[in-house]
Amino acid sequence: MFGALDNHVCSYSDDEVFGTVYHQVALASFSRTLVSMLEDHGSMPATASDAASTLAVRMQPEGAPPMRSLPQATPGAVEPVVQIPYQELRDLTPSAVEKLHKAFVGERAYGAVAITGIPNYAELKHDAFRAGVDLALLDDEGRKRSAAVNNTYPGWSGTPGSETHPLQNSFLFNVKEELGGQMDPFFGKNIFPSEDYRKTWVKFVDVMYANALQVLRGCDKVLDTEIQQWQAQRSLERLGDDGPALAGRFICYDSGFTREDKLLELRDGVSPLNSNASSIAELPQSSHGHEEPSEMSVKTVGHAGDGLASMRTHATPVKTAGHAGDGLASMRTHATPVKTAGHAGDGLASMRTHATPVKTAGHAGDGMATMQTPSAPVKTSSSGYNPLELSSSLAGSLSSQGSDDAVPVSQPETDYWLPWHVDSNFVTILHKEMYASESTGEFISEPPGSGLMFMNEVGETTMLDCSDPNTMLLQMGAFAQIYTGGKLKACRHAVLNPVKPGVARFNYCNFWYVPWDTLCTAPEGMEATAVNQGWNAMMDESYLNITMKQSFTAFRQFMVSPEARVQFSDSQRFKELSAILPIVRKQGDAGAPTMPNIQVDLLTDVRCPFSFISQMNLQNAIQNLGLQDNVVVRYHPVFLNPNVPKEGESLDDYLWREFGYTKEYAHSEDYPLRRYGREAGVEMNPHRRVVNTFDAFCLIEAAQEEGVQHELVQTLSRWYFEEAKDISDVAVLRAAALHVGLDAERALQRSSELQGTVQERYEEFSAMLGEVPHFLLREQASGNGLELGGLRSVEAWEQVLQQVMERGQFMGMTIDGPHGQKVRVDRANPFTPVSHALPAQHGWTPTAWPYQEEDFSRMDERPDDLMYSEPRLAEHLDLSSLQTLTETYEAIFQACPDGFSVLDLCSSWNSHYPNMDRASKVAVHGLNAVELEMNEVATERHIQDLNLDQKLPWADNSFDVATLALSIQYLTKPREVFAELQRVLKPGGMAVVAFSHRSFIEKAVRLWASEPDDGEGHAHVVCRYFQHGPENGWEKIKTMDVSPRHGDPVWIVTAVKPM
């Protein structure tokens, strides 16, 4: 797995999908997205230029201009990768154990070993690779038959016909399922294009697995000499053999796919190191010894702390790769424009606020910032440009992440298929790559200088020097290093790309996972040595104390997200602003809107001219796109200067004092702001005063409560900029309130009451923003969008709005509803692990009930009515999540006939239902009479403890829909309850089970409480309840994630009673 997140590019690959599982779960709550974890803990440079330039040697195709050399270091006496003959390993001779010690123990160990001379290995490998290449190039139907639900689940990762290139995809299967015959529901069921394909690969992996286990046995012997009573406490062999998943991925990459990595130049600026890599030229030595550069922290050049879980190259550019349905899902193509970051002095005319400690880029009373021009009659200035002279390209450009204009940034030629990293799983099994013609698929010889490059702790690098085709490699991962307290070293490695165009690279890797509930912990007393330190750490303490399943879950959640597929990653500020400014759902007609609804939150000062002009351009863009009924704008205070005196100040005096602009220049027709305003339909009045806008914003806040905030802002802005009215004057504010239809006196009274709120909001926003205007645009259903600042043209705003709408298209699912109806759930995210949970089973269900009685034990076994003896009038999720649940119910109820009946099982004072006027019966069921009496939608109520008595009091075939929200985790007899639920539903009736990550943990059954944040795992549990309660009693089971972008997760499983 490779990631590059620098506010511009988000790049990921199948190459190490299962080798670089994210380990940030221990440092962040499970409700946060992995993207948030990446940026919360990341400390990597924002752009590739922040690191030193890459050293490289590349092949020079005949007739081509000279190319750079491959990454290398000073040649000298360094140890090669350890090789062990197959026979020695099989017998585990003392020599073999000694070689394993050398391969994995000590600062000069590479954490890898090569097993040579494996009988028939080359032939088995060739046959398997041939099958993989033929599938990629020749078998469209086979790829369709074996299509994966996502590239983190078994199957072919691309979509025939829409792949960037068939040789830029992968095929994944669980080796353990094939060798042991047991499917792991969490990993997903294997799916193959044909039985012959499956058999070919199984022959190969059988040999790989047997040899890998023997390496682990030998390493256990090594550890017996290093750690007292090692095998009495732990065992690598047992850990590996007990693991449920060995992710076998056949990887295809075309020649155009390359990445950049600059670790070696950093290294060579740190210490004199050696290498015996082939095709090596001498590099200059450094005199710094092994010190870390003082200006760089471990996390800057390491990783894991940045959430990339072994991918050091946080800002690594990617050259070519595309991203459609090919499973690579996030690789930018070479031609993809990358947006720039930063905003000072860019000509965007963002106005700095009073708190900004840069006077020359200040905030001039009219928003001129440092708007000096050599041609203007101004005081002497060191400024050599006129920020007001915005070029049409700048004023009309677009930023996708920061506050700046977007400009294409060329991506440099790069040297790596895979940058330097440590696999974060347990162990990786692989071998030397194979190469083939992209056009014919015929295998070709290995290009010189290609393949794996290894690095040890002291920074020495080498490449595998082995000509034996019957060779297998085994690399320790970060989990194994930590599990052994650092005694065994994880393998630092990279994959070089020296090939000429038209040559594709192939490899097959087995990424080994231990039992999912195994904690990543070091032996007692060895925690300090378990994790790498220093300039090439490639991991940190965030790897510790989380389970393998938590790690893999976090990785999968990120890889299946829309962000990974469409190459966008929200900036940290986008996430922070989105959390502060929740989306207010736009109410409209039932059903899916014809156009996406967009919420625009504008953080600004009402006297900022750039803000007003940009607003006018935004409104014109909205009109041009026909979005008048689909966009709502809200306004929030960020004052340019909250300390402007009550009487204000003449704008002419202010401009002369602060910026040296003469009155004649500021009043002239050539004054840039007047030109920009005129283009937007605004006549900027030069006679206005610099005023304090605090009271104006208090009135704006009051107008929001009455639904006329936008109208009031437009009125005040027009009056201020065109008529030069004093919008700090209470008489003007009273007139503005009347103008938009408010009760003026009541509005002014309310605005006085809101002064504290406005002050708090200003302080909150001003701590985050240094200039205005700043826009946060989000598609309402998905929460996806952009945050950006500055003055933008109509054309630029049209591009922005289109991008926001595009980001919202990754939402919505259609499921089977009641009585044969289809239900469209607009808030559902079809890409998340929960939504994939059932499809990834490919029809598999356990033949027998998979749980034991102890799985339904609880920490608190006292009667439940004791806990519910007093009413609990509380909400169990945040408001945005409850709103999403209500909207989901509404979509389902709309598919019901008039007069439908609903049962809310395990209910309380609030069923979270929408308006129920069309329903004839709403029966609520729970444990507390007071709560049920307060339920406003209920037409009948029933008190019952389902853990004591599962028999429901209603007749067969009574209800059209039954819901069970946020209580499934407390049922100790779920099969019996689900059987009763099925009985009381009408044929074709629908059951809806909603759950989240919150619970009274002492009352939750052990099956649930052991992994309270495991949405995908719990979705499997609920599916089992349906599948066995009763057997064949339910059909059309669906798993669905309707979680809001910011809030508690909301996961749903639905099923239908057969007609």
TrEMBL record:
Residues 599-762 form the DSBA-like thioredoxin domain. Residues 370-385 have a biased composition (Polar residues). Residues 947-992 form the Methyltransferase type domain. Gene3D superfamilies: B-lactam Antibiotic, Isopenicillin N Synthase, Chain, Glutaredoxin, Vaccinia Virus protein VP39. Residues 359-387 are annotated as: Disordered. Signal peptide: none annotated. It comes from the Eukaryota. This is Methyltransferase type 11 domain-containing protein.
